[in-house]
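Help!! Second protein's tokens look totally different from the first
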Amino acid sequence: SKLTSLGQLEMTWRSRVHFHPLLVRVLHKSRLRYYGKPEKKLDMPYQAYFEVADGSGMMSMVLWNSLCPEWYNSMKVGTVLLLEQYAIKTSYPFKTQPTPGDSQMKRFATIEISLNVRDPPTKISIIPEETVKPEWGLPEVKYRFITRSELDDLPNNHSCDVIGLVTFVGRAERARKREHGEDFWLYRWAHAIDGTSDQPFILELFATSQPDVFEHIHPMTYLVCTQMRVVRDLTENPSSTIYLTTSNESQIFITGWHKGQPYTKDTKVKNFIQWTKTQSEADQMKKTVIGGYYPFPRPPNNFLKY
């Protein structure tokens, strides 16, 4: 059928009601958002953002309401989609923006693709990776993996991806989203090493929309975290309190989930796997810790400083 591109959509969307089908690849995926309120009677008040791209550039795509439970888990980073009968809306200005792996990619920020059950009822098809043709010109998923030795030189809020061997995982903890509010964020701390430094990555992992992964992070698993943000305490000793925290678009993967993920082709991931083959599992096991209370950043040594 006749396809359109994201670039053509941006130029012609105001003058059209019906749009030609789109062929895009998912590059980023946000966590699932629940926006239900007691007074609003919506059956499935869910929403999820994706960043999708074709040869012309990248655009946001929003999955609404009952389409979320049906499609959210199937739309993985790297999935190729054929979209028919979708709507185009002006972009929501306050949404979070993931950092693209390819800094050269054009971004269409004025509009977004809206996928709904009606008005119009969107038709979504997933194209199996083995049938994707090179002539479609779809971009590959690119990452920004860093090693632990590179972390100390990165600025606050820098976006990156990491892979490491888990040596510590803390218990799940809760923090209030707002003071005096009843909603909580669920998070846990983890340490992961990659052989490039004596220090581990210190990771603050908030529960994403992957409970099956979040609950099963154990020592000795290979952990991949994408779209992490660098957090440094710029006030006192910057190097002592550098850690990484999840963002709205972070994805987390552990041993058993890596097969077929696009990052398996990344050079730094391959280097890490080579390093793990030189390690003795028994030696690493002795250094691992699980659970317990983990105060971080650490309080000062004496009360006067505190």
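Here's the second one for comparison:
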Amino acid sequence: VIKKTRFPHWDEVLEFELAEGDLGEAVLSMEVWDWDIVGKNDFLGRVEFPLDTICTEPTKGWFQLLPFPSAAENHGGQLGALRLAVRLVEDRVLPHSYYQPLIQLLTEPILCPGQPPAGTALAILEEVTSGESRQDVATKLVKIFLGQGLAVPLLDYLTTRELARTTDPNTLFRSNSLASKSVEQFMKVVGLPYLHEVLKPVVNRIFEEKKYVELDPGKMELSRSRRISFKGSLSEARVRESSLELLKGYLGDIVDAIVGSVEKCPLLMRVAFRQLRRRVEERFPSAQHEEVRYFSISGFLFLRFFAPAVLTPKLFSLREQHADPRTGRTLLLLAK
């Protein structure tokens, strides 16, 4: 439900699973309703897609809303339009034995480390994947190697290769390489329950309180900000002071929750990061690079795990809906 607007923007991704053989004459129907507190909701229009018409390529664009139940009547566009992207994806999953040669090829450099590193399947895969497909490849690799009990050795293999290519420790793991994406996906798969336990109480409180927080003078809405006193609009200084106090409170609770969660951190994550620290120490052993061993881990744990979850809780299943603009601004400032 998007309130107080005639031009709602949902920004939702919905997935529906179809069993084999269900395609046939199936129709995907998207309906728009006006939500009412009292009485029945009002039907505003619908868009229908016979699934057999979108088998070949995605359907995307603005679609005129049609009256219920027939699309035959023409209301001259009076019902408005809905912008959608619809895609049908078919996955064929074979019995496990069919994938064994591929799994053997991928795990070979891990199980038999004596091979020339440049000629392995993983090394070639790393070279040929583009920026767009790298995240998808990393997700599949992590799941395959988790299934084989080899996720930590996979990350060690990929991060060691990246360490060997890195000359400036300040740029370590900053790119969206296969190694960085694999560690990121590994944390999402292994650490999501842990992330929820740590962040959910604070994130829920931020959504419920809906406090006005703004530090940028150019973006302050002094007349709309929640008043602390009864003396009219707040001054810029008061808004900033109030915002800083709120941000420090939220951030303090987040940091305390993270620091106090050491024992709850999944064992696989702890083992993987311990190995990563050891590899970084071997690659940059000098005293001037002593802090790199910590930056390499915090770069993953904070920049690719905790901070993105604070910024967009819905993508990490911390919330069912995206944040409203006010709450979203608070989350953005916290993440920064």
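Reply: Different proteins will give different token patterns, so don't panic. The chain is about 45% helix and 10% strand.
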